[in-house]
Design a protein that fits this description.
The structure is a single chain. This protein has helices spanning 2-55, 119-134, 171-177, 193-206, 211-225; strands at 60-69, 72-82, 85-92, 96-99, 104-109, 112-117, 145-151, 156-158, 165-167. By secondary structure, the chain is of the alpha/beta class. The protein has one domain (2-228). The strands form 2 sheets. The chain has a 5-stranded mixed beta sheet, with helices on both faces. Strand 5 and strand 6 form a beta hairpin. The relative contact order is 0.16. Residues 30-40 and 217-229 have low confidence and may be disordered.
């Protein structure tokens, strides 16, 4: 009887040990994947920053700002304030072929299909959050804001053309062809530097400043979107 009990206890001990080892392996792989996701995302955002500084040297570029919405925090990769106007830029680092759907998009890369959230819809959330911040200043309450999704990879293709979804090397042309500043009589206008500075200050004042909340939201973003890289 004692030998049987000992055998049972040893068996459960081995099972627990195996389960614990499997947990450690899965946790290690998950953390490595998250680090990889962060690396690609950071690299893509850095490429956009370099591009903006080169093509719009007198512009203000605000990076990785967080804003409160009715559903929690939302992160905006870049907010560009330039002579042509104000723009929200969502940055993506995906490679391969992208199939466009209404809800989620699908990436085909290295023989795998992975799904990620529709970035155009993401920008709609960003736009609503930024508009709420701008409404704090009467001058900007109805200000025009452009949105664009930028893919930084050179080997990305799409199942169809989507307005406002471009490769990085087309960003300058897109902004110049879609100016948000208009003259009273029509046509493209130019934003004054004092207006650009006031916009920057208004947006920064409306951003969430808690580092703890930033990190918590960053972790949520990894959990939600890591499958798309």
């Amino acid at each position: 009887m004692n030998d049987t009990l000992l055998t049972i206890l040893l068996a459960f001990g081995i099972v627990d040990l195996i389960a614990f080892l499997i947990f450690l392996i899965l946790k290690f792989r998950y953390n490595r994947h998250r680090e990889k996701v962060g690396h690609y995302g950071d690299r893509a955002e850095h490429l956009v920053q370099e591009y903006i500084h080169e093509h719009f040297p007198d512009a203000f570029l605000l990076n990785n700002l967080y804003f409160q919405t009715e559903h929690g925090l939302t992160q905006i990769d870049h907010i560009l304030i330039c002579r042509q106007g104000l723009y929200i830029i969502e940055t993506k680092s995906h490679n391969g072929h992208i199939t466009v759907h209404e809800r989620n998009w699908t990436q085909e890369w290295n023989g795998k299909n992975v799904s990620f959230h529709n970035p155009v819809k993401q920008n709609r959330v960003h736009l609503k959050a930024l508009k709420e911040v701008l409404s704090a200043d009467e001058k900007f309450a109805r200000y025009r804001v452009g949105t664009v999704v930028v893919f930084t990879s050179k080997n990305v293709t799409f199942s169809e053309n989507v307005r406002g979804v471009i490769r990085l090397n087309r960003l300058s042309d897109f902004i110049k062809r879609n100016p948000q500043v208009k003259r009273p009589g029509g046509g493209a206008g130019t934003m004054r530097m004092e207006t650009m500075k006031r916009l920057k200050d208004t947006i920064q004042a409306g951003a969430v400043k808690s580092r703890r909340r930033h990190q918590r939201h960053k972790n949520d973003i990894h959990d939600q979107y890591s499958e798309g890289v």
